[in-house]
Amino acid sequence: MDILKNNLCEAVLILKKGEGRTIKAGGSWIYDNEIDRIDGSFKDGNILRVEDFDGYPMGWGFINTKSKITVRMLTRNAEEEMNDEFLYRRVKAAWEYRKAVIDTSSCRVIFGEADFLPGLVIDKYEDVLVIESLALGIDILKERIIEILKDLMLEDGIKIRGVYERSDAKVRLKEGMERSKGFIGEEFDTDVTITENGVKYHVDIVNGQKTGFFLDQKGNRMAVQELCRKLSEGKTADGEPVSVLDCFTHTGSFALNAAVGGAGSVEAVDVSELAIDEAKKNAELNGVTDRMIFTVADVLDLLPKYVEEGRKYDVVILDPPAFTKSRDTIKKAAKGYREINIRGLKLVKSGGYFATCSCSHFMDQQLFTEVIAQAAKAAHKRLRQIEFRTQAPDHPILWAGDEMSYYLKFLIFQVLDER
Fold first, then answer.
1. Same domain, 326 and 404
2. Is the pTM of this model over 0.85?
3. Domain end point (choices 54, 75, 96)
């Protein structure tokens, strides 16, 4: 059955004059207040044709009148035929791109709008797929997309043993959809272990955050590992083994890379006892427990305490959760990022290193760098930038779109006392 073709309706959506700015700029969302009318009958989740106020064809998208994002565009080419062949080409292009740019043993295979499959995320953890569907139209297509993807991977000798759905995000409620979680197809053993940058992790695809693991920091974790390796091969300013403080460690990813890189002492901090338990298991997997300290604490409370105690580290890493998920709270978020970076910078030895990041789309690159500069001034530190990085290439940043494909900013500095 051609599910894409069967979901096509004859209705045509007409934009208001002067509206559709997002899709005209290269994006793929149409909001409810941009629509003039819809000619013809349709059901939410259907694919329909989109036209500008003067009849100019804008492409095809799926509609959901329960959402403020009423249409999510599948293509800006109105001449495209909406059928299974179109869907196959979209999925194949996503897979071929990953094969070209990243180690695909574990990676994000489909990244929503950036792969022109709006609202859909699929992560691959070795021989398991985890899917997150956040929009009604793509939800109708998800099982066919999985079939195509499994067939494409099998052609490359990769047999997927199971698929698990983690469509349990609250945003589904805004689409008029229920939150969903569970197996797609046959049940399987969900105990998954992956290897990334030579570091092993247990991935909890059932109860872990998002789809189970933050794949977007892959390259950034490697940068920390390499930094610690180079520091460990030389000598620190005081001749002691390299010391590292990893804040918001979650399941220990940056801390583990530091330890595997050769750091002599790594403290991993997180407010979640469950996350720290997982981090301990991951440390055992990698044989580095003898060099790691695990602390269950709120980082926002702990850092001022450590500053007061006069603690100093060769490397400090800040990987906080997003402090804002909307434009309305940017000022408050900026204050939070500034304060936490002041505290983090004060804990770095002069000549040591500081890695800091923001995973909030709304905390854009310019604002984030301004906040870091303000924090350095307040902490009486001078910064020498080593690297500016973003998310791993399996999370492609689609230019000319504003659907949050660019969100992760990651900086590594050398920190110097004022001079």
1. yes
2. yes
3. 75
